């Protein structure tokens, strides 16, 4: 059974016929298209495919079948083929199916309208998206790098996380596997300087830094010496929006990013409440699209060096960089975001990267297959991480210090978590210790309401709690609150330069603005960060117009 199966099920032969015709015309060469009028027969066929070791890429089902609904059928299909994409088929004119769509979303089931005429590109756009999602983890792809290292080495995790968050396609090969040993033989290398990064053109980097990888892949790591109109420090959603609007409005725009494009939002496996994406979009996809958009409009991205200082020289701002360089700019937009707060528990800190991860750590999810994992946190990022991990892990447990998730997590995530069979929520609970040989094997959990502790087996702990702003490098003249967040607009002690009120995102230094999570009082949502980044560029124009 060489080709993956694409299956459609509808008890009405007349309704199924145009679906089958469209699927066969477009996909017969690459997929085994099977269309059936009986959901029971389709389930038997799916079971037989699984028993034979076959793959199922996509299952489509009409909702209004008399023996079982489409959602019921797709739920049972998932048990047989958990990796398959699933979608309910609805008609353009049948409004009675509208109420089932929210239920479908909760079960990770998509939907599409049936083709209403031959060559219905709206239908094929949806089918193409479903097949693309399935193919990403299941089909060979071009890889820019192969990483060879020890699976549970913290340094290997750092590289996997770095490449994943920056959208660099790569393969990781455990040095103890036959594939890993074969690559070492191929390049004539030993195990003294692991992890190794083998680039697509054969170059080998020994335990490289992010900047070294970026330079090797042709990514810009040094700014132009000529002054920019605006330098944006940080490439999360706020910084990317500022880059898009700055470049599109004719400003010479530089974006400085020391870690990963997309910031914390880039680690979100699926964002379903971002405007314009009814089927949701991953944080990485959103960030990569925004970066490409800004780049095409003329923004310059500088990756690797970290901002370590800021001072004025005449009418320009100088951003000092950790590698000894600097960026000269007429204005600066601070969009450095925040980092997750550390647990500070020695037994767990020692296992960072070896079962204990800060953030969603998307590339580690598949390594949690059939394991018990825990997610610490009660905000949206924790909920999204739990849902992503639930695709692979046997059991995911959310540990929440508070008594409820209702006040801290969006309703759509609460409903998805409640509908997930392998996710449980423990309120008034926290991890207080843990351990294991070379990697995490167990956790000690505290019930805050009773004071009792218990030890549980655990292969992974994903920590997404609190936040700490990246503002320690800023000069003392920039006002901050007690937690280090930058004060802007009327939140700061001053009222703006003489002769005008303070602008909304202006800091206490004229020409320096702050947006996104780093700003005091920010909403901590992707959409609001994007809005702040866009509005800040208007204020940059206003400032430059006064020079």
Describe the overall structure.
There is one protein chain. By secondary structure, the chain is of the alpha/beta class. It has 4 domains: 5-138, Response regulator (Rossmann fold), CATH 3.40.50.2300; 145-216, 3-Layer(aba) Sandwich (Glutaredoxin); 228-339 and 468-546, FAD/NAD(P)-binding domain, CATH 3.50.50.60; 346-463, FAD/NAD(P)-binding domain. 30% of the residues lie in helices and 24% in strands. It contains 14 helices and 26 strands. The protein has helices at 13-27, 39-51, 70-80, 100-106, 121-138, 154-165, 178-187, 210-216, 237-248, 283-297, 346-349, 380-389, 411-419, 526-546, and strands spanning 5-9, 32-36, 56-62, 85-90, 110-113, 145-149, 170-174, 196-199, 204-206, 228-233, 253-257, 300-303, 307-313, 316-321, 326-334, 338-339, 356-358, 372-376, 395-400, 423-427, 429-435, 442-447, 453-457, 460-463, 468-469, 512-514. Strands 10, 11, 12, 13, 14, 15 and 26 form a 7-stranded mixed beta sheet that branches. It has a 5-stranded parallel beta sheet with strand order 2-1-3-4-5, with helices on both faces. Strands 17-24-18-19-20 form a 5-stranded parallel beta sheet, covered by helices on one side. Helix 9 crosses helix 14. 43% of the residues are buried. The mean pLDDT is 92.
Concise synopsis of the structure shown:
With 547 residues, the chain is of the alpha/beta class. It folds into four domains: 5-138, 3-Layer(aba) Sandwich (Rossmann fold); 145-216, Glutaredoxin (3-Layer(aba) Sandwich); 228-339 and 468-546, FAD/NAD(P)-binding domain (3-Layer(bba) Sandwich); 346-463, FAD/NAD(P)-binding domain (3-Layer(bba) Sandwich), CATH 3.50.50.60.
């Amino acid at each position: 059974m060489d080709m993956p199966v694409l299956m459609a099920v509808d008890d009405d032969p007349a309704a199924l016929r145009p679906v089958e015709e469209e699927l066969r015309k477009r996909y017969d060469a690459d997929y085994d298209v099977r269309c059936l009028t009986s959901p029971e027969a389709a389930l038997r066929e799916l079971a037989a495919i699984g028993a034979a070791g076959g793959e199922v890429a996509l299952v489509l089902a009409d909702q209004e079948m008399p023996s079982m609904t489409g959602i019921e059928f797709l739920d049972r299909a998932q048990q047989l083929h958990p990796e398959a994409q699933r979608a309910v088929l609805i008609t353009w004119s049948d409004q009675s199916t509208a109420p089932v769509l929210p239920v479908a979303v909760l079960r990770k089931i998509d939907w599409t309208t049936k083709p209403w005429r031959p060559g219905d590109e709206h239908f094929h756009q949806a089918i193409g998206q479903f097949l693309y999602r399935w193919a990403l983890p299941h089909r060979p792809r071009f890889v820019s790098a192969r990483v060879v290292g020890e699976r549970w080495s913290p340094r290997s995790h750092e590289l996997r996380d770095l490449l994943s968050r920056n959208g660099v396609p790569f393969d990781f090969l455990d040095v103890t596997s036959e594939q890993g040993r074969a690559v070492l033989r191929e390049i004539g290398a030993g195990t003294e300087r692991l992890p190794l990064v083998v680039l697509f053109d054969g170059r080998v980097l020994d335990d490289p830094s992010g900047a070294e990888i970026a330079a090797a892949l042709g990514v810009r790591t040094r700014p132009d010496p000529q002054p920019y109109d605006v330098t944006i420090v940080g490439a999360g959603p706020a910084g990317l929006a500022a880059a898009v609007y700055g470049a599109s409005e004719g400003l010479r725009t530089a974006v400085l990013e020391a870690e990963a494009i997309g910031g914390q939002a880039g680690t979100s496996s699926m964002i379903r409440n971002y405007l314009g994406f009814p089927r949701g979009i991953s944080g990485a996809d959103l960030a990569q699209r925004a970066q490409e958009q800004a780049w095409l409009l003329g923004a310059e991205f500088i990756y690797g060096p970290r901002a370590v200082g800021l001072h004025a020289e005449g009418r320009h701002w100088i951003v000092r960089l950790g590698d000894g360089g600097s960026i000269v700019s007429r204005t600066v937009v601070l969009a450095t975001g925040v980092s997750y707060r550390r647990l500070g528990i020695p037994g767990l800190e020692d296992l960072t990267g070896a079962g204990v991860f800060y953030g969603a750590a998307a590339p580690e999810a598949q390594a949690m297959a059939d394991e018990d994992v825990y997610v610490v946190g009660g905000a949206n990022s924790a909920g999204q991480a739990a849902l992503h991990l639930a695709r692979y892990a046997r059991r995911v447990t959310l540990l929440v210090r508070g008594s409820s998730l209702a006040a801290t997590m969006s309703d759509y995530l609460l409903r998805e978590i409640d509908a997930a069979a392998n996710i449980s929520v423990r309120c008034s609970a926290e991890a207080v210790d843990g351990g294991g040989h070379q990697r995490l094997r167990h956790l000690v959990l505290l019930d805050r309401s009773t004071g009792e502790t218990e030890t549980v087996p655990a292969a992974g702990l994903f920590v997404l709690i609190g936040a700490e702003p990246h503002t320690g490098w800023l000069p003392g003249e920039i006002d901050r609150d007690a937690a280090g967040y930058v004060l802007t607009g009327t939140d700061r002690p001053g009222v703006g330069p003489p002769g005008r009120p303070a602008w909304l995102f202006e800091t206490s230094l004229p020409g320096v603005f702050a947006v996104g999570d780093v700003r005091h009082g920010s909403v901590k949502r992707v959409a609001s960060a994007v809005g702040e980044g866009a509005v800040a560029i208007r204020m940059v124009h206003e400032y430059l117009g006064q020079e």
